Each structure stands twice: as C-alpha cells, then as structure tokens.
Amino acid sequence: MALDVTSTVIRNDGIMTAPVDDEIVLLNMAGNNYISLDAIGRRIWELLESAIAVKELCRQLGLEFEATEDQICADVLPFLLELEKDGLVRVIG
Fold it and tell me: What is the pTM of this model?
C-alpha cells in the first residue's frame, strides 16, 4: 500500500531507541542500521507509537511547531517514506 497523506501509519515493533538530549537514536536490528532523529523527528516518532493518519500527524505537528498543515506535510511525507523504506514504520488499514 502506497504511503500518502491519506494513509495511516504506525512504527514497527522491535525498534530499539535511546534518547540523547533532545534527539533520539533508533536501532533497527532487522535492517542492521541506526538513525539519529532531531527534536522534530523525535516528536514524530513519539506520535507514531499509536496508529495515526498522516493528515492528523501533520495537523498535530502544525499546532506544536506553528506551521501550516500543508507546510508540515511537505516535509513529513518524504521523512515517513524514508522511515518506511528503512523498515521503521508501516502503513496499516
């Protein structure tokens, strides 16, 4: 299923995390890689703990970071696609 603004996403199980100051480091044992996320990436990761519609994710981030939903989605969608490619999140439903 293709990931777009109408998708519902959730993070995959089995991803080890470690907070580092405002950032978070994700260790994907299945993919044998790790990713460091800045404060905004960390907030997205937190919101992905439960299944959430991409549009709702963008709306929430827009409220928290004082930007429009369209501005947020323009940045968040490629980020989510990268996380999906790395096996860290999946589209559900």
Answer: 0.91
Distance CA(9)–CA(76), nearest Å, equals: 12
Each residue's pLDDT, cut to its tens digit, for the chain (93 residues) gives 789 999 999 999 889 999 999 999 999 887 788 899 999 999 999 999 999 999 999 999 999 988 888 899 999 999 999 999 988 999 997
User: How many helices and strands in the chain, by DSSP H and E?
Assistant: 3, 6
What are the CA-CA distances from residue 37 to residues 2, 7, 61 (Å)? 23, 22, 15
Query: What is the number of domains present in the chain?
Result: 1
What CATH number is given to the structural domain containing 39?
A: 1.10.10.1150
Structural domain harbouring 53: 8-92
d(CA 92, CA 19): 27
Q: Supply the DSSP string of 62-88, one letter for each residue.
A: HHHHT--HHHHHHHHHHHHHHHHHTTS
